Amino acid sequence: MTAGTASRATRAAADGAQGADAALQEAFDAAVAADERIEPRDWMPDAYRASLVRQMAQHAHSEIIGMQPEANWITRAPSLRRKAILMAKVQDEAGHGLYLYSAAETLGTGRDELLDKLHAGRQRYSSIFNYPTLTWADVGAIGWLVDGAAITNQVPLCRCSYGPYARAMVRICKEESFHQRQGYELLLALSNGTPAQHEMAQDAVDRWWWPSLMMFGPPDDASAHSAQSMAWKIKRHSNDELRQRFVDICVPQAAALGLSLPDPDIRWNEERGHHDFGAIDWTEFQEVLKGNGPCNEQRLGQRRRAHEEGAWVREAAAAYARKHTSGAGPAVPNGKATA
Amino acid sequence: MTAALALGDDALVLSHRLGEWAGHAPVLEEEVALANIALDLLGQARLLLSLVGDEDELAYLREERAFRNVQLVEQPNGDFAHTIARQLYFSVHQQGLYEALAAGGGPFAGIAAKAVKEVAYHRDHAEQWTLRLGDGTDESHERMQRATDALWRYTGELFQPVEGVDVDWQALHDRWLETVGDILARATLTVPAGPQSGAWTAGAGRQGIHTEPFGRMLAEMQHLHRSHPGATW
After folding, report:
1. Mean pLDDT of all residues in chain A?
2. Mind listing the pLDDT tens digit for each residue in B142-162?
3. What letter does residue A129 receive in the DSSP assignment?
4. Which chain B residues are closer than 8 Å to A313 by Cβ?
5. What is the mean pLDDT of residues A65-78?
6. Are A252 and A189 in contact (CB under 8 A)?
């Protein structure tokens, strides 16, 4: 999608020697109001830029940290077909991380800088990845529920006002939908399998249901960034709206799976045209966000260790590239250019 | 079908080792690349094992002594240099072997023809990293040389004739030596001086004699499948 007229106007205004902030702001607001895409070279409010960097970095970090709970089962996958599917999925997640870091870089930050912030605990990743994968069925529950929640969150981001983010999301959502179906199909096979397999599937859904609902973030009346993000059309729906949509999607899917959801308060509300559901344990959510979830230390520790133990490899690639600058040598992957 | 088992087990076991890297790679691009290579190899393993019987029965229900892979592919990942050296030795070998099989018109010609395209990529990846590490920093050079030396003793087995694989093994070995020697030289590394296989390692994996880490690898790989006899997944 190309930048529209109002968007071009912001560039024209930025080129003008006056640089009148009010005019720039006005052109930006008009572009957002007209549902046009903001592009990297367009003027944008500093707070809009900062908010996008925060959200996109968090999103990229979630893809990268999110590889761990699933990779935990690659070496134990119970059939070669499932093993291939899982490997492909974890590979896709690394790819999604790469798209998102690239998209974030259009805002003037760098991947190395963002990774440093993740490793220092100064930027977050999704709370869901601080839960452990204890059985094979967890791989299915993650596909169905966690990817399902992610898709519900992310499909509206395909219309996000910032062009590079929106375009990354289009590609990512296609692959995520595929993973979600595979996760569902994995659970279906377990649910219809032996009693032990069925029990494994139910146990996984019991453990992943509530954390999945927490993926939509705090309730609307406690969400710090929501109002501004919606005004900027970064977000299109509130946390509670998306959470409700997700519950409404999952209830019939759980029935089709032959599995129950661990919430005795779920029932159809004719008046609202939605499912009512029980209260989320927001204390648990806050604890996980604060770093006190079951796997916070383990996840960040593994990420830091991979980065630190890989430093000599990145340095080697950078040193090699410096020696062979004629272009005949291999490209440098994320090598730090420092001597 | 000893041959399909031997080639299938090589791919299966190396794929498994590469899968252990997921979430631990030194740079995100390598998360993608190593998983990609692991997936290609797993695909090859599935095709080859299916020529013999049920792929899951063969992968999950055979014990250590019944596996026919070379010892090279079961070696633990070690540091990134060890993984790259293992991949270089194996990929150059696999490329030569599969090119010969694809041209030969035997029972593996079809599978080999599909696989050579993948293997050419694997070999390029390993070659480029051998150059970067060998000719990178002092530390990377030293690590790459150590890895090259440590795994050298497992390379002789790659050229032990496999029953049912109709290729000129001596010619494969000569070409492999020349190619690997050239890559190591360009990477400023020294071709190891030790023997490529000792009396007891020559052909040992192909006969079901493996190294100690392999049993532990199989225990992890097979435990879930074995815990639910007869289940489908």
Report:
1. 92
2. 999 999 999 999 999 999 999
3. G
4. 26-27, 30, 80, 133, 140
5. 98
6. no
Provide DSSP, B77-90.
Answer: --SHHHHHHHHHHH
Six token digits for residue A292: 């006190």
The tokens describing A280, both together, are: 């989320």
- Judged by a CB distance cut-off of 8 A, whether residue B231 touches chain A is yes
Residues in chain B closer than 8 A to A187 (CB atoms): none
Whether the CB-CB separation of B188 and B141 falls below 8 Å is answered with yes
Q: Between residues 69 and 98 of chain B, which touch chain A (CB distance below 8 Å)? A: 79-80
Block residue for tokens 């029972």: B107
A320 closest CB neighbour out of B24, B80, B132: B132
Contact B140 A313 (CB under 8 A): yes
- Report whether A129 contacts A295 (CB < 8 A): yes
Question: What token pair was written down for A284?
Answer: 């648990």
**Count H helices, E strands: chain A?**
15, 2
Residue contacts between A and B (CB atoms, under 8 Å): 154
Interface probe with A: pick from B28, B84, B127, most Cβ of A within 10 Å:
B28
φ, ψ of residue B193 to 5 degrees: the values are: -90, -20
Tokens 């970095």 correspond to A57
Would an 8 Å CB–CB cutoff place B216 in contact with chain A? Answer: no
What residue type is assigned to position A208 of the chain? W
Nearest Cα residue in chain A from B220: A76
Q: What 8-state DSSP symbol labels residue A267?
A: E
- Residue B133 corresponds to which tokens in the numbers above? 């590490």
Cite the DSSP H helix spans in A142-193.
Answer: 147-154, 163-191
**Residue A126, number of CB atoms within 10 A of its CB:** 22
Please tell me the pTM assigned to this model: 0.93
Check if the beta carbon of residue A76 is closer than 8 Å to that of residue A136. yes
Encode burial over A155-179: b for 16+ CB neighbours within 10 A, e otherwise. bbbbebbbbbbbbbbeebbebbebb
- Best B13, B32, B141 member to test A by mutation, with max A CBs in 10 Å, is B32
What is the per-residue pLDDT for A19? 57
